[in-house]
Model the fold of this input.
Amino acid sequence: MKLFSPGDGEGFVAAFINNLVQLLILAPLCSGVLGFSSELIYGRILPGVAISFLVGNLFYAWQALRLAKRENRTDVCALPYGISTPGLFAHVFLVMLPAKQLALSLGLADPERFAWHAGLVACFLGGVLEFSCAFIAGWIRRQTPQAAMLATLGGVGLGFLGLAFLFQIFAAPIVGLTTLVLVFMVFFGRVRFRGGVPATVVVLAVGTLLAWGTGLAPVGGPDAAPLAHLHLYLPRPIFGELWAALGGGHIAAYLSVVIPIGLLGVLASLQNIESAAAAGDDYPVTPSLVANGLGTLAAACFGSPFPTSIYIGHPAWKKLGARAGYSVLNGAAITLVCLTGTMAALTWLIPAEAGVAIILWIGIIIAAQAFEVTPKKHYPAVVVGLLPALAAWTMLIVKTALGVGGAMLSPALLKSAHSAGVFLRGGFALEQGFLYSAMIWSAIVVCLVDRTWLRAAAWAGVGALLALTGLMHSYALAGRDTVIDLPLLAWLSGQWTTGRALFPAGAIAIGYALAAAIFLLARFITVPRADDEVA
Done:
């Protein structure tokens, strides 16, 4: 098989547009939500993204050529690869935004760099986790119920990708609803546009035209200078800054995000490798996942706080005729966009509203997948697993709204809200480590449905341990935000102060322990009932 085949051109256009949509969302999130400067976005983050894209796309193209040579075939398609969509939003909203709010509440001199460093640490640790799990991914998958993994991801899809962008769509309805209808028509109606024009190209073109016609574009207004950032931004390693950030107290605070997102990324990549095998391209699992982990590590080492992943969609790319060359072209094109400041002109030309319908669709698909591949009897476990992420997104909205209104979080405010029937204390407790709790509660329900009492008790025991150590449900008020509270870690490191609760989530840990005890006793105190018997 040659490096470039006739179908690689169409495959490249589809892959490039999909990745471009992510970058069109990434840049506004970094500038609008996080308040990052243009110098940081175009000079440090995007060059790091370019390196991560090159590492993965070139490897997977080489891997496809190697498989084709080994099996004497000409129809091998490289694995699609790019920025992890759930990881992108998790690192923005669950790592860097809380870090910046914490830095502001503490009066730190450089909140922007503090938040960026938090994202780099999360990305680096995620890469280490992805690399390490490449050798035990099969075991992890066997131990974790499928419903628990997919529901955890589905909750992020519904909340942080679904509701968040649904609000944005209805805030700009002419652009938003038109592009939403186009996305739903093409992807849910399973149709394509005549002439083979990629659907994402049509959506972006229509959305951009409507945005210019309704005043949403140009982004930045008539005084914006979209060509001002057209420079060559060479990637620079930041080993020193990354090493300092790793020792800056970020690690423990964001493990509750890094570990679940990393595990989900590993398993999602594993599923996509299996999808490729079902389409006829049976790639070895371990080197594929190792390359994925190295791509994420490369991103962190060169300034990007966003993890990478093997994408869904290999069978579709293969049907287009894509082979190995589309992966090389995709990596080269994204690299060119990221290293030349072209993203500034593209985000000026194409507002986020033109592409958010595509992200909303991704969120819906992620949530729907949890039901599509999960046995019907485990549907309740999927629903339970969706709730913590929805609660976390709700708490983010509540805190943002309170902050815009100038209110500071305080015990008195929480008490007043409780009296009014708004149980913010419970919401804040559920918010911290919500990816853990989503996975644990969904797994518990699966075990209860299957009456595997010992496994249910084990999952509840994991919940008790995480709550006791403060990695889940433990929070402290920090100005306009809540942050994870880890006094046990402070005590072990000799930094604990008298009067501070050693186990802030101790009551919740006891609740998990009692649940584990009940599950251990279940086989002795219960009997199965008939399906038609009323409980």
